[in-house]
Amino acid sequence: MTHRWRSLPIALAALWFCSSAAATGFDVAQLMSALARQPGGLASFVETRHMALLDKPLVRTGEMRYTPPDKLEMRTLTPKPERMLLERDSLTLERDQRRMRIRLGSRPEVLAFVDSVRGLLAGDIASMERSYLMQLQGPAARWVLTLHPKDAEIAGLVQRITVTGTEAQIRTIEYQQADGDRSVLAIEPVKP
Q1: Out of 15, 25, 138, 180, which residue is the most buried by the measure of CB atoms under 10 Å away?
Q2: Which structural domains are found in the chain, ordered by start?
């Protein structure tokens, strides 16, 4: 009889662990599905770039608009107005009344950034799995998704990308570059 009672705490602990794991059984497929259902919209952003060559971080603020499945526009307001438009396979940059268009296939480092943002916003699990090893932690209410580039050339530029969010809303995207520099993009939805 005593032997059975000694096993009870172990059995209760195992039952608690299994039930809590089931309760927080939020996975990458569920996250990407939730992101795919988002209609897009307007958000404000603050981007902070930490660079070894500078004494203090560079900070940009502005707004971004995502239109599914492949249009993302970022308008920087401070410190200097500029516009970035990502549409299908091209990236257009406008600054100081100059315009530059980049074909994404010709710039792998730009493509890595673009694919991570666009793939996440679109909830495109297939493209994300082709490009990244993905690890999701936490429940739907407060998740952290870590992306490690699969391509060696991209991994030579971007060590990892860490994305945080709540439910189907991305809150931050942090890029840790292979050279030690990093960039954090904080996103806040703008209410219509």
Answers
A1: 138
A2: 2-189 (2.50.20.10)
- Quick: pLDDT tens for 146-185: 999 998 888 888 899 999 999 999 999 999 999 999 999 9
pLDDT at residue 66, as a whole number? 92
The predicted model scores a pTM of 0.81
Tell me, what DSSP letter sits at residue 191?
P
Whole-number Cα distances in Å, 161 to 107, 173, 174: 18, 7, 6
Q: What is the DSSP string of 153-164?
A: HHHTTEEEEEEE
Where residue 21 falls among pLDDT bands split at 50, 70, 90? very low
d(CA 192, CA 187): 16
Give the three-state DSSP class for 34. helix
Task: Tell me the DSSP string of 41-78.
Answer: EEEEEEEEEE-TTSSS-EEEEEEEEEETTTEEEEEEEE
Residue with tokens 């927080």: 24
Residue with tokens 């315009």: 99
pLDDT-based confidence at 31, cuts 50/70/90?
Answer: very high
Q: Which residues pair with 184 in a beta bridge?
A: 48, 174
